[in-house]
From TrEMBL:
The keyword Transport applies. One of its GO terms (molecular function) is ATP binding. It comes from Metabacillus malikii. Keywords: ATP-binding, Nucleotide-binding, Transport. CDD domains: ABC_NrtD_SsuB_transporters (cd03293). This is Hydroxymethylpyrimidine transport system ATP-binding protein. Gene3D superfamilies: P-loop containing nucleotide triphosphate hydrolases. Pfam families: ABC_tran. Residues 6-237 form the ABC transporter domain.
Length: 256
């Protein structure tokens, strides 16, 4: 049985601007299940980050309901882990101080928070840099700190907004493999945004594509690959066919 982790029912949302309303979602329905790795893909400006802001509670729908694990949640802040598009590490705090933020916010003693983080540094590839400042780290390392901080929020639903888009190709691949290993170990539900079709296919169980605007429906593509996966799996004919299908959908969306 699929247990719903996140559900949006008949959600409409618009931004207000000088020129009037900018509709993003219209009577929008969407569901992901516990333990799934689901990716959202779409051209920039299609509303991907907005969808995340609605799920986290940083924005509220104009109409409709959002459920987390079958509970109608009007106040969703703090119930899902959110890694925004920029890593948003505080430049004046060291790595361990940045990672400790969610624990401090929960009222944990600094010493206990640091102890808990020390145990995770190696797993996150951050041994020895805990007293550095963010600017002293590579992009990949900063993303791992940001991800560690998201994990420490304790939420089992994680929303990751283009976490790897600023990384070079090789770092990106090693981060993708690392993320899959983390996900398999922790059995969280992950909702991931990217505009990289290969990344979406490599990581996900299902992919959803923004195809119209305002959006009422996301096109769904499943990924017929078992796990664990290796990058070479993407060369299989069935995967190449899915990849072309996705690219054509995105092309049609951009030129419409
Ligand atoms: P994506 O993440 O897919 O690139 P966004 O969700 O960030 O897209 O934005 C969707 C649309 O909403 C864009 O056209 C963007 O310009 C507009 N938008 C985003 N944030 C705001 C805001 N705070 N006020 C007004 N318009 C916004
Ligand atoms: Mg965005």
């Amino acid at each position: 049985m699929n247990k719903p982790a996140v559900q949006l029912q008949e959600v409409s949302f618009h931004y207000e601007s000088d020129k009037g309303k900018i509709p993003i979602l219209q009577d929008f329905n969407f569901q992901i299940n516990e333990g799934e790795f689901v990716t959202i893909i779409g051209p920039s400006g299609s509303g991907k980050s907005t969808l995340f802001k609605l799920i986290t509670g940083l924005a509220q729908p104009n109409e409709g309901d959002i459920f987390l694990r079958n509970q109608l949640q009007a106040k969703r802040l703090g119930h899902v882990g959110y890694m925004p598009q920029q890593d948003l590490l505080l430049p004046w705090r060291t790595i361990i101080e940045n990672a400790a933020l969610p624990l401090e916010i929960k009222g944990m003693r600094k010493q206990d928070a640091y102890q808990q983080i020390q145990l995770l540094l190696q797993e996150f590839g951050l041994t020895g840099v805990e007293n550095c400042y963010p600017h002293e780290l590579s992009g990949g390392m900063r993303q791992r700190v940001s991800f560690l901080r998201t994990i420490l929020s304790g939420a089992s639903i994680l929303l990751l907004d283009e976490p790897f888009s600023a990384l070079d190709a090789i770092t990106k691949i090693s981060m993708q493999e690392w993320l899959l290993a983390q996900w398999q170990k922790r059995s969280e539900t992950i909702l991931f945004i990217t505009h990289d079709v290969n990344e979406a296919l490599f990581l996900s169980d299902r992919i959803f594509i923004f195809i119209d605007k305002p959006t009422s429906y996301l096109e769904e593509v499943n990924v017929p690959l078992s796990r664990p996966r290796v990058l070479k799996d993407l060369d299989e004919p069935l995967l190449l066919e899915r990849k072309n299908y996705l690219i054509n959908l995105l092309k049609a969306r951009v030129s419409s």
